[in-house]
Prior knowledge:
By secondary structure, the chain is α/β, with parallel strands linked by helices. Helices cover about 40% and strands about 15% of the residues. The protein has a single domain (about 5-185), classed as Rossmann fold (3-Layer(aba) Sandwich). It is built from 6 helices and 6 strands; from the N terminus they run βαβααβαββαβα. It has a 6-stranded parallel beta sheet, with helices on both faces. Helix 3 (about 55-70) packs across helix 4.
Amino acid sequence: MASIVLFHSALGLGTGVKKLAATLTHDGHTVLTPDLFDGATFRSLDEGVRKRDALGIPELIRRAAKAAEAAPATSIYAGFSMGAAAAQYLAANRPRARGAVLMHGVLPLGATGVERWPDVAVQIHASAEDPWVDAAVLDGFAEASSAEVFRYPGRAHLFADESSVDYDPAQAAVLIERVRAFVRR
């Protein structure tokens, strides 16, 4: 079974992240869900982005890296939106990382602090027309990392997070099954 570090979006550590963690735990995996926002949760992305910006990206990465120290080096790093950035960064920079699952977000390769993606498996999930995900960045990173990419119909951003107004139960179910298959490999 896998060890997974699962990061939340700018909405905070809400029900969507907890539900995915519970599903993966039920499958026999060990799942760590760090709270990068000190317990704060938000109903809108705008509110959450203000919290993210108040903390700053360097502080969020510091918090994510510190939380990851509690997990084995061979963990899979996963995240929703803002949390996908933390997962991507740690998968690129933590030696022996086993994988990365990027849901609703992806960074350009250069933003991860590496020039070449390590031998780490990647799975990416995003809506085809998500206004928060740059399709060219997703395509560029997918090519550089040989990622398995899943594009879902529509414009919804956090469609797999039931605490989001964008939640789509049918698409979320498909995403969750794909993530479960990825972590079983």
